[in-house]
Amino acid sequence: MKLIKPNEKLKEQFFEYINEVKKDEEINRIGNAYKENEKFNDMLDRVRNREKGKDLLKNDVEATIYWIVDDNETEIMGSMDLRHKLNQSYFVHLGHISYYVRKRKRGKRNCIMGIRRSNKNI
């Protein structure tokens, strides 16, 4: 299991991931890794800008978004947001880390491993 930044190489796997999340009716839980009707390259630009604190929405904060992928980088198992700083809303409600793991990948320590790996990226 690895944490990697969103990239063009896994475009097809990203849409497979999103379609599965929608099918499982959990799209509202996926966080900033997805925006409805957003083109893939626009998503890449948005997450790169968010990491730099550029073009943030009013109450948003800088964050790095990662995909949780298998060791071969052939499947996206989930996504993780690592917020660099917290405003009052994020401090009270969400914290520094948010994550989503596909339903069929849960119970396999993917989240725990992702959080452990994220600590190395901070």
Give an overview of the whole structure.
By secondary structure, the protein is of the alpha+beta class. 36% of the residues lie in helices and 19% in strands. It is built from 4 helices and 4 strands, in the order E-H-H-E-E-H-E-H. It has a 4-stranded antiparallel sheet. The longest helix is centred in the N-terminal third of the chain and has 13 residues. It is globular and about 35 Å long.
Poorly predicted runs are none
Oligomer: single chain
Proportion in β-strands: 15-25%
Helix share bin: 25-40%
How would you spell out the order of helices and strands?
EHHEEHEH
Large-scale geometry:
globular
Q: Span from first to last CA?
A: 17 Å
Number of strands: 4
Please compute the radius of gyration using only Cα atoms. Answer: 14 Å
Helical segment count: 4
Give me the side-by-side strand order of the main sheet. Answer: 1-2-3-4
